[in-house]
Write a structure and sequence with these properties.
Blueprint lengths: L1 E6 L10 H4 L6 H21 L4 E6 L16 E4 L18 E7 L18 E6 L2 E3 L1 H12 L3 E7 H10 L4 E10 L2 E4 L2 H16 L12 E7 L2 H7 L6 E4 L2 E6 L1 H18 L7
Helix pairs in contact: 2-5, 3-7, 6-7
EC number: 3.4.11.-
Enzyme class: hydrolase
Protein name: D-amino peptidase
């Protein structure tokens, strides 16, 4: 059994603030250890379930967060950026299941460190007119590969968001949101044990994904009209309004296009704020 792990940081055990997840934040280095140990718990659970290969993709921010010397040596790691598929880099139809470790709720939802990919730069995302974020897009693109998402860990809001997309996905809440930068934490040892045991259980009862038929529609509303203006130069991308672009394609291509959108946005918005 081949298992793929996408590891984000905002939903990691003990993490609640930007200082935890952004270098050179005061607690960023400590949070890197917490992130690595959450991933290790999932890796242990995967091998206990019979995994023969585990690939881990560092999917947060600079994508250089996980500590290779602390990572379970049975796992293989993809580190750094840019990557054409971003948070899904390395996933192929050859994998039997995907695990989402440390994920967070979408922009506009009151979850710990909630946002969608680029903080304030992205206001909203819709997939076939349904509000979505990193969780929904990952789930949909994974299904397009024919790979089921078996597990998600994060705060309770992120877990609820995943259940809204697919009730069959096992979830592990490692904290309970009190506000966007506050949470009631599950004790570290208890959270890691829950991640490990739930991973093992989830991989022994992997759900079968419903593979989407035909093209799907992605719409993204940006904070800046300048981003929309540049993105409409990409063939197939149209403008819904001054700050919203729309594109239709198969789900895997949409995910890759969206990662191109992120790189364009980064270039366009690289100047310091005017006010």
């Amino acid at each position: 059994m081949k298992v793929y792990v996408s590891a984000d940081m905002e939903g990691v055990t003990g993490v609640v603030d930007a200082e935890d997840v952004q270098p050179p934040g005061r607690d960023y280095e400590r949070a890197r250890v917490l992130m690595t140990e959450d991933v290790n718990a999932a890796v242990r659970g995967a091998y206990a379930a019979g995994a023969t290969e585990v690939l881990v993709n560092d999917a947060h921010g600079p994508m250089r967060n996980l500590l290779p010397d602390l990572l379970d040596p049975r796992a293989r790691l993809i580190k750094g950026r840019p990557k054409p598929m971003g948070m899904m880099e390395g996933l192929t139809p050859e994998y039997d299941a995907a695990l989402c470790v440390g994920f967070h709720a979408r922009a506009g939802v009151l979850g710990v460190l909630s946002h969608s990919f680029m903080g304030h730069e992205i206001e909203d995302i819709w997939l076939d007119d349904r509000p979505t974020g990193e969780i929904g897009l990952f789930h949909a693109a994974s299904a397009a590969y024919g790979v089921p998402v078996a597990l998600l860990t994060g705060d309770d809001t992120a877990c609820d968001e995943m259940k809204g997309w697919d009730p069959a996905v096992a979830t592990v809440p490692v904290k309970f949101a009190k506000d966007r930068f506050a949470a009631q934490l599950v004790p570290v040892a208890e959270a890691r044990e829950a991640i490990e045991s739930t991973t093992t259980e989830a991989l022994t009862n992997v759900p079968h994904p419903t593979t989407p038929n035909g093209p799907q529609t992605l719409a993204v509303r940006w904070q800046s009209a300048s981003v929309t203006s540049h993105l409409t130069a990409i063939p197939g991308v149209s403008r819904r309004d001054d700050r919203t672009v729309v594109v239709e394609a198969d789900m895997v291509q949409l995910y890759r296009l969206f990662n191109l959108f992120l790189r364009v946005c980064t270039a366009v918005t690289s100047n310091p704020p005017y006010c």
